[in-house]
């Protein structure tokens, strides 16, 4: 066996130290500094060196011990059976190798049946029941010893305090994951931010922080869930497959994943992986992979475990949604309404399946919250199709030379003054259409499909028209001629003529489209429609007081103020006049004296995964039609919208005899209401 060189030993010792440090942060201090993917890489490097030089492995290696020692605030609990962790697979090849290892050890050529479940991104817990009564709950800690968090776990609604049903073992220790669903996480962060406190970086941190409260009344107010996935110590009989065990756990009152499934062989695992990977972004909670377990318990026992993890299970991790990269510089962009947004320019990094080189920093408060400096190493997160975010700074990696981020005092595009409106976090440019950046965005919005729908007027063309000073406001679009347009890049005579024709066509519009096209703050399509129906004409709308505006469904004091301010601005009035002079017109309609929205008085609850839209879009569309959208099912619920894999809300709605709409029925309802209004 080769002897490790001094440089290998040095690298190995450094890896050990880093892993120790980050395990302590993760398991004991709930202050994860690096993404899981980075930690997994460090661990994989360590295992690789140990495989090559077994003589290096000492009892203090992180591979011989999982996690770190418990803190002292909570009482220590020794687990009756160690809480193992899972080996990771990072691709189909690793999965094929796992399946082969399983069959080789079992000396069989036959296809193995695997149980598959999502791997929740939360905090592992052990919960002990005696004679069906919850007796003790503990964190995983280092796998052998955890912390007693019984009072906190008792506050989680999905953890039964008493088990119900048949054949409950005299002693039963279940294991599962405590996590915070997205909806609850967003609400919690809103509350925390409104108190001026530091928001939680992600749902996992929020769950960890909530579980580790010494005052369980705080935990009780946190939206935690607990999904169980296995049994530890047991005195009594259990079924002989993993999935049958999960079924009895469900029967006894535990929350178990309704995405669990049986598959055959590595091919079945791959299919399930693809199925869940496609749903991941729409799930109402974070998962970071899939756990595959040999389903038969007798085979699990034959396979046994190595020091750290069982041989009968593996976690196939999803591509990392978080990675580390360096912040090169910060630029300031100006939006349609003048909002100044700092944008991070990053060293390109592959994360969440794409290469990311920019991330929004939102506003000055966000930069302060992150304590970010140019040159810092940062954790970048890209989940689903969500815009990449900087989650945190890796302070332990801060280079010697970093630079403060200077927020501009003047608009970086037009040099107009910037203002911060009281009560808002956003800083705005006061330039309006004088600012080329705002002009570009305003014209793009004006021309867009749901606004004036000017075919052929794409973003690149708008940018050229503004940069060459051909248009000062949307009204100037209607003064363009074919010759001017044909001079622009990638525009021939024919396409110029087509654009002129499209501009002509767009002149005949509807009042609601015109209102939406004006880009009044907070006036989206639905509000524009309601304003147009209520007032019937632009003149009536312009003459309306803030109070009168609030008679329109969907318009509260804030939106009413934005509308009134818009029509008080002389520049805006001049643009409207110029548009009308240049031929933009619409038919006035009879004003609706009272505007009853089709779903007024109805309350909907949305659950499960929708394929044609995300849940937020469904919520907004229902709300625009006058409905309320609630978070939980009650006797007051008019109907439950149930997408794929709907869980407990569906059962509750069925129990209460509440109408259930599947996705097709929802789409139909939205269409019918749209046509009727
Ligand atoms: N779904 C699931 N997550 N998870 C995590 N199953 C599962 N099993 C685990 C862990 C640590 O460990 C088994 C060895 C019981």
Offer a quick outline of the entry.
The chain is α+β, with helices and mostly antiparallel strands and 677 residues long.
| DSSP strand tally | 22
Shape: globular
CATH fold type of the largest domain = D-amino Acid Aminotransferase, Chain A, domain 1
Average pLDDT reading: 89
What is this structure's SSE topology?
Layout lengths: L5 H23 L7 H17 L23 E3 L9 E2 L2 H15 L6 E8 L2 E8 L2 E7 L5 E3 L2 H4 L17 E9 L2 H13 L8 H9 L4 H5 L4 E11 L6 H11 L8 E4 H15 L7 E8 L2 H7 L9 E5 L4 E13 L5 E12 L2 E7 L3 H7 L6 E5 L7 E5 L24 E3 L6 E3 L6 H12 L11 H9 L14 H5 L6 H15 L3 H7 L7 H11 L2 H6 L2 H4 L7 H12 L1 H12 L21 E5 L7 H10 L3 E3 L8 E4 L5 H9 L2 E3 L1 H14 L1
Parallel strand pairs: 2-11, 19-20, 19-21, 21-22
Antiparallel strand pairs: 1-6, 3-9, 3-10, 4-5, 4-7, 7-8, 10-11, 12-13, 12-15, 13-14, 15-16, 17-18
Helix pairs in contact: 1-2, 3-9, 12-13, 16-17
This protein binds ligand 5U1.
């Amino acid at each position: 066996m080769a002897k490790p060189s001094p440089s290998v030993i040095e690298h190995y010792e450094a890896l050990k130290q880093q892993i120790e440090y980050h395990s302590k942060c993760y398991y004991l201090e709930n202050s994860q500094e690096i993404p899981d993917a980075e930690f997994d890489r460090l661990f994989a490097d360590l295992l690789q060196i140990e495989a090559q030089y077994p003589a290096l492995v000492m009892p203090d290696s992180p591979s011989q011990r999982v996690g770190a020692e418990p803190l002292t605030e909570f009482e220590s609990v020794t687990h009756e059976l160690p809480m193992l962790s899972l080996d990771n697979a990072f691709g189909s090849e690793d999965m094929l190798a796992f399946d082969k290892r399983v069959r080789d050890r079992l000396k069989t050529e036959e296809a193995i049946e695997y149980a598959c479940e999502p791997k929740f991104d939360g905090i592992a817990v052990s919960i002990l029941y005696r004679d069906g009564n919850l007796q003790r709950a503990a964190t995983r800690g280092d796998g052998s010893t955890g912390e007693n968090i019984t009072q906190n776990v008792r506050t989680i609604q999905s953890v039964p305090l008493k088990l119900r049903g048949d054949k409950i073992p005299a002693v039963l220790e279940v294991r599962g994951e405590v996590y915070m669903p997205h909806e609850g996480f967003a609400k919690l962060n809103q509350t925390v931010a409104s108190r001026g406190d530091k928001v939680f970086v992600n749902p996992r941190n929020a769950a960890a922080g909530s579980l580790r409260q010494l005052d369980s009344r705080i935990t009780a107010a946190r939206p935690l869930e607990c999904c169980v996935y296995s049994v530890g110590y047991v005195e009594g009989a259990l079924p002989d497959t993993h999935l049958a065990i999960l079924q009895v756990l469900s029967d006894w009152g535990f929350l178990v994943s309704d995405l669990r499934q049986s598959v055959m062989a590595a091919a079945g695992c791959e299919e399930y992986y693809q199925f869940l990977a496609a749903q991941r972004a729409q799930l109402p909670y974070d998962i970071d992979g899939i756990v595959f377990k040999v389903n038969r318990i007798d085979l699990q026992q034959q396979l046994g475990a190595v020091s750290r993890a069982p041989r009968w299970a593996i976690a196939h991790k999803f591509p990392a949604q978080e990675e580390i990269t360096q912040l090169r510089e910060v630029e300031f962009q100006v939006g349609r309404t003048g909002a100044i947004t700092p944008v991070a320019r990053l060293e390109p990094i592959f994360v969440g399946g794409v290469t990311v080189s920019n991330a929004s920093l939102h506003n000055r408060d966000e930069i302060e919250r992150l304590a970010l400096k140019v040159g810092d190493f940062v954790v970048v997160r890209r989940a689903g199709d969500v815009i990449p975010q900087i989650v945190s700074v890796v302070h332990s990696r801060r280079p010697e030379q970093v630079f403060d981020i200077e927020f501009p005092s003047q608009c970086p595009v037009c040099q107009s003054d910037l203002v911060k409106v009281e009560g808002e976090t956003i800083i705005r440019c006061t330039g309006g259409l004088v600012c080329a950046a705002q002009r570009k965005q305003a014209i793009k919005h004006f021309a867009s499909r749901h606004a004036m729908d000017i075919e052929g007027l794409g973003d690149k063309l708008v940018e050229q028209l503004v940069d060459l000073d051909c248009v000062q406001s949307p009204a100037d679009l209607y003064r363009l001629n074919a010759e001017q347009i044909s001079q622009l890049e990638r525009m021939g005579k024919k396409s110029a003529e087509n654009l002129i024709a499209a501009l002509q066509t767009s002149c005949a519009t509807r009042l609601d489209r015109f209102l939406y096209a004006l880009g009044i703050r907070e006036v989206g399509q639905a509000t524009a429609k309601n304003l147009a129906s209520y007032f019937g004409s632009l003149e009536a709308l312009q003459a309306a007081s803030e109070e009168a505006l609030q008679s329109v469904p969907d318009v509260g004091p804030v939106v009413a103020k934005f509308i009134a301010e818009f029509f008080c601005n002389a520049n805006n009035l001049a643009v409207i006049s110029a548009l009308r002079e240049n031929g933009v017109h619409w038919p006035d309609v009879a004003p609706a004296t009272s505007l009853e929205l089709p779903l007024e008085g109805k309350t909907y609850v949305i659950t499960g995964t929708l394929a044609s839209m995300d849940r937020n879009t469904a919520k907004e569309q229902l709300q625009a039609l006058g409905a309320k959208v609630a978070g939980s099912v009650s006797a007051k619920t008019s109907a439950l919208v149930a997408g794929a894999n709907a869980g407990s809300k569906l059962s509750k709605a069925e129990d209460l005899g509440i109408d259930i709409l599947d996705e097709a029925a929802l789409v139909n309802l939205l269409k019918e209401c749209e046509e009727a209004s």
